[in-house]
Design a protein that fits this description.
Structural class: mainly alpha
Number of helices: 13
Helix content: 40-55%
Order of helices and strands: HHHHEHHEHHHHHHH
Strand order of the largest sheet: 1-2
Amino acid sequence: MHSLLFVALAARSVAVALGASDPVLPTDAEAMSLGVAKIVAMQEKGPGAEVAAEWPYEGVYRVGGKIPYGYRVGGTSIAGMALLAAPGFAEDAARKDAVARAVEFVAKSKDEPLLSPVYGGNYDVRGWAHCYGLRFLLAAKKANAVADAQKALLDEGIAFYLDALKKTEIPRVGGWQYARGPGLENPSPTSPFMTAPCLVALIEAKEAGLEVGDDLIARTVKALEITRGESGYVAYNASRQTRDDEGQIPGAIGRMCALEAALARAGKGDEKRLRFAVDRFFEFWPELEKRRKKQGTHVAPYGVAPYYFFYAFTHAAQAIEFLPEADRPALRTKFRELLFKVRDEDGTWNDRVFPRSRSFGTAMSILALLEAGNSDLPAQPAQPAKAATPDLSRKSAP
């Protein structure tokens, strides 16, 4: 990785010396190498901790005046996923040590009461920990990134987070929601913003040989499909089939890309809708840019919050990879130009006014860069298919 970085920097120096008029973008190798180093350096000690093991996501939401535990585990997990996936992990001792500490923190967090799947409902972000904690620990196990002494704890953490997703599934509607009503036993609108990555988490767990029923995946697919209008617009949330609101598409592009990519990952892809979501992302991304690094959360006219920004970028990169192979190179180039346009001078990406959240933005951007040419994804989106008819009669999640 360091040799690749040297070559990229040398090429840039030559271009500047020759008086190139256009700015020379960094190579992906250069950007990821620097981004990885920045993320490792940003790892911090949590409250009362003796070692640096966390990358908490910082937003405006607080619990008892503190960053919620769900953001601590969720942010740490996303940063850990990027460190695992970026090239050169096996040869990078500092990165491996940082990931091992993060695995320990995320896995041990299964005992944290604020992450319990048994709670009263209402606005609560612990579901982000359940979703991304599961994905990170699965990725760490797949990469054989933990010592033998950690393996039992790792497996316990995986089991906890998967069980938590099952227990917090919304009754009758399906999916997940961080802003549900009181009482987990009561139906609530589903959030595609949250349900899309949760569907991917379930698929990854099933692929890892864990017990994930086809009925659960079918209900999750159905929960996503009811949030999608005829045009391809995706509602903020829904408990029944949504109606189109095409005027709000500029604020929906992130969840549109996330939903279409997740459904394609589940074998329920629709090329027309995928293309619509990607095209609208490129058309309306400036509406997200207006809110990046700004105060507040959901702001009119589109209800865009700063935390939609890199979420949208990462899922747009995923959606591109489910389009036909011939279409991808041009879209990747266009996407990459945008991503580097919003990169900060220090080589990090940040969606918030909080410096701490550089770890999240940088991790999401690394994951976006890695999407291009990902051989684990199908070469083409699956043909439109009807989900298996789910059992919607149950009154509580399995």
